[in-house]
Amino acid sequence: MTRQNIIDAVIQTVEELRKEYVPRDTGNMAFNSLKYKVEGNYVIIYIDTNIAPYLPHANEPWLSPKWNGKQNPNQDWWDVFANEFIQRFNTRLRGTIK
User: Could you give the CA distance from residue 78 to residue 46 in angstroms, rounded to a whole number?
Assistant: First the structure.
């Protein structure tokens, strides 16, 4: 498998997961701030916090009394996204990454 095949597999997997696992109340995180870039032999997947400065709050438990004890429906979404990415990427490559 070539370097470009691996990069393409990363991008395909991110695009697939963007639709399913990134919170989309307004669509900003899913469609504007979820990004990836290739640097050497690395593909970096990240949320641009200049576009979505509220990202840390979207992933964390709500601690404010304003929410009356309700759980953040997006809590831990980044961990879920990352775990699902690894599973799907492994399947796509027919290998194992950790």
Answer: 10
